[in-house]
Amino acid sequence: MTTVPLNTTRQMKQKNIMLVTSTLKSLISATKGDISNHTGLSLATCGTILNELCSKGEIIEESFDESRGGRPAKRYIYNSNYFSLLSIYVEGTNTSGIISSRLTSADNKTIEEHDETYSKFTVEALIAHIQKIADKHSNIKAIGLGLPGVVVSGNVLSCDITSLEGLAIAEQLSARFGIFVQVGNDMNYTAFGFYRNNCRNIDEPIAYIYMPPRHCAGCGIVISGKMLRGASQFAGEVSKLPFYDNFENSINIKSHHTLVIERLINIASSLIAIINPVTIAISGELVSQNCIEDLYSELLNRFDSKNIPHFVYRDSIKSDYHNGISEYTLDAYNNFRVFRI
Fold first, then answer.
1. Mean pLDDT across 41-55
2. Residue among 212, 218, 217, 222 at smallest CA distance from 191
3. What is the 3-state secondary structure (H, E, C) of the chain?
4. Is the pLDDT reported for residue 314 higher than 80?
């Protein structure tokens, strides 16, 4: 997410607007005094911002608090219908997979979800999926798209769905629908979604390992609340670790369970040695809670227990994936519309 240098009065006001709206969302309902106490902003500054946002319809003046003498305090709520956001991801190959989407409100509450299978992926099929939802919901202002590949500045450099490679997909969708579009890697979004829902405000590294049945393992990493993408957006491509090729050659003589455990041991060991995560979430169709227990036992042979992270089994990445897309895109869109960057 882009960080804006606060070097002008206008930018400071914009930062304060972001602070007031995020605080009101977390409080659900609040008076000007409540917001001032939580943000540290003056009553006058909060009043000016609340009045401006009320005039735009982003904030609703709900009611007056019961008076205890003097003028009663106005109470405000965030208008969840101010706009909506579409998180969407494509999972599979050129010949089979799903397009999964979730529509959320301006305060990130789920409105509806859709899953659509395909037998041959095309960009036109993705556009048609989005168009069906847009036809029903006219106030969609942002789209976040997750893909199983390397994405840089909205351009797909490599992808399990090879027909997407080389496409400026963010620019294409933005031009088609005339709204804000952000595109990113599946594991980065999934790790971010897990972090936001389970480890928010934790500065230590967290990682998310996904072991899909058809493709190589992937990993997303969040440190101090920010995705670790790497210099060329390649961070987390754990299938490029040197042990992977050796395991591929032995797949016929080892059970799937043994193969999965050995891969997990080596991936987790690499993460422990390099970023020393506090938590690692693990998911995949070939992974179970028993795998987590076996993994922990094996790691005790390599590391002191104090260096072994807390492992969390996730029976599906779907919720974490959509949460990550919607949370990250909502942050980016709010920055875009307030700071116009």
1. 95
2. 222
3. CCCCCCCCHHHHHHHHHHHHHHHHHHHCEEEHHHHHHHHCCCHHHHHHHHHHHHHHCCEEEEEECCCCCCCCCEEEEECCCCCEEEEEEEEECCCCEEEEEEEEECCCCEEEEEEEEECCCCHHHHHHHHHHHHHHCCCEEEEEEEECEEEECCEEEEECCHHHCCCCHHHHHHHHHCCEEEEEEHHHHHHHHHHHHHCCCCCCCEEEEECCCCCCCEEEEEECCEECCCCCCCCCCHHHCCHHHHHHHCCCCCCHHHHHHHHHHHHHHHHHHHCCCCEEEEECCCCCHHHHHHHHHHHCCCCCHHHCCEEEEECCCHHHHHHHHHHHHHHHHHHHHHHCC
4. yes
- Predicted TM-score of the model (pTM): 0.89
- Residue 95 tokens, joined: 């010949």
| Average model confidence (pLDDT) across the chain | 90
∠ Cα 139 195 79 (to 5°): 25
Domains of the chain: 9-78 (1.10.10.10), 84-188+319-340 (3.30.420.40), 201-315 (3.30.420.40)
pLDDT digits (tens, 9 = 90+) for 270-285: 999 999 999 999 999 8
Q: Are 46 and 103 in contact (CB under 8 A)?
A: no
pLDDT in tens, 124-170: 999 999 999 999 999 999 999 999 999 999 999 999 999 999 999 99
Of the candidates 126, 137, 66, the one whose C-alpha atom is nearest the C-alpha of residue 92 is: 126
What's the pLDDT score for residue 277? 97
Tens-place pLDDT, residues 258-267? 788 888 999 9
